[in-house]
Write a structure and sequence with these properties.
Largest sheet: 6 strands, parallel
Helix content: 40-55%
Shape: globular
CATH topology of the largest domain: L-2-Hydroxyisocaproate Dehydrogenase, Chain A, domain 2
Bound molecules: adenosine-5-diphosphoribose
Strand order of the largest sheet: 3-2-1-4-5-6
Number of helices: 11
CATH superfamily of the largest domain: Lactate dehydrogenase/glycoside hydrolase, family 4, C-terminal
Radius of gyration: 19 Å
Strand content: 15-25%
CATH class of the largest domain: Alpha Beta
């Protein structure tokens, strides 16, 4: 039987993720939105594509969580995206209220599902979702690191003219300014990144900057919203890892309980995913500066979360 995936938020990210899941025949999808007819309209449009694209998966649009009952995976993309000049943190108040609202409706319908949070600011939203939902940490995770890693690979590909498929590179840490591109582990065709660059110091700094600014660069060009193709594709990579139990670790926003010397916070770290959700947090041997950056990133998320709890009176 096809797995059942609910996507809450039928906007740019949610609907694009739905279309990719259908085209790959990965799951039957329920697309939910507060704007019910948007969800229904996009689902109908996608169903009308079936004969052309020859996929068997189905999608239905809805404003009613009864239709999401017994989902295997619930993806939450509902929220407001960034506009030019905004940081992801500027979205906290409005998106926290939306997240709470969505969880209150989605959890009773699918109490055993795996929950994947996409709404920004990602790290804050996943940590809040943990407190609001009572879900075990293994069934709650966030999408940020897979996207940042894809942007890191793209920046390396641009700088080296190598095929993205020949590049291994991962970004961990917060999904924002505190992200940590793991330069020490990045390879191109199996060679350390620094060894194949003409001016390693200068070029690596530029690659890291392009990675950190990857999302903002899209926002600046679009003016009316934020990135959605690469985010949607990153959601699908995570869903496929959850369904197929991939053996290689992905950068997943998962709860740390002592790993990397960090405790009691969700942050993007190398993680093996499988049918039970977060199967294992993998402890890479990081360069000392990268470990320091990761720990500072964790501290920044904790401080922001404390501020956020005060503002939202949680
Ligand atoms: N319940 C369900 N859907 C909601 C709710 C709610 N309470 N509130 C808003 N939505 C829906 C909106 O109606 C809209 O269709 O969420 C959708 C968001 O879509 P877009 O505005 O197109 O935003 P998108 O680009 O998809 O980004 C969504 O993902 O990457 C992050 O930063 C991004 O937080 C943003 C989220």
């Amino acid at each position: 039987m096809m797995p059942k995936v609910t996507i809450v938020g039928a906007g740019h990210v949610g609907a694009t993720a739905a279309s990719l899941l259908l085209m790959k025949d990965s799951a039957d999808v329920v697309l939910v939105d507060i704007a019910e007819n948007i969800a229904k309209g996009k689902a109908l449009d996608l169903m009308q594509m079936r004969s052309n694209e020859r996929f068997k998966s189905t999608i239905c649009g809805s404003g009613d969580y009864a239709d999401t009952a017994q989902s295997d995976i619930v993806v939450i993309t509902a929220g407001v995206p960034r506009r030019p000049g905004m940081t992801r943190e500027d979205l906290i108040g409005v998106n926290a209220a939306i997240l709470q609202n969505v969880l209150t409706s989605a959890l009773p319908a699918s109490p055993d599902a795996l929950y994947l949070i996409v709404t920004n600011p990602l790290d804050i939203m996943v940590n809040l979702a943990f407190e609001l939902s009572g879900l075990p940490a293994s069934r709650l995770m966030g999408m940020g690191g897979v996207l940042d890693s894809a942007r890191f690979v793209h920046a390396i590909a641009q700088a080296t003219e190598a095929e993205p498929q020949s590049i291994e590179a991962m970004v961990i840490g917060a999904h924002g300014q505190g992200m940590v591109p793991l330069v020490s582990r990045a390879t191109v065709k199996g060679q350390p990144l620094a060894n194949i660059l003409v001016n390693p110091q200068e070029q690596i700094a530029a690659i890291v900057q392009a990675t950190v600014d990857g999302g903002a660069a899209v926002v600046e060009l679009l003016q009316t919203g934020s990135a959605f193709y690469a985010p949607a594709s990153s959601i699908v990579v995570m869903i496929e890892a959850l369904l197929d139990c991939r053996s290689d670790p992905l950068s997943v926003c998962a709860r740390l309980e002592g790993e990397y010397g960090i405790d009691g916070v969700f942050l993007c770290v190398p993680t093996r995913l499988g049918p039970h959700g977060v199967e294992q947090i993998v402890e890479f041997d990081l360069a000392p500066n990268e470990l320091g950056q990761l720990q500072r990133s964790a501290q920044a998320v904790k401080e922001q979360l404390d501020k956020c709890r005060l503002t939202l009176s949680l």
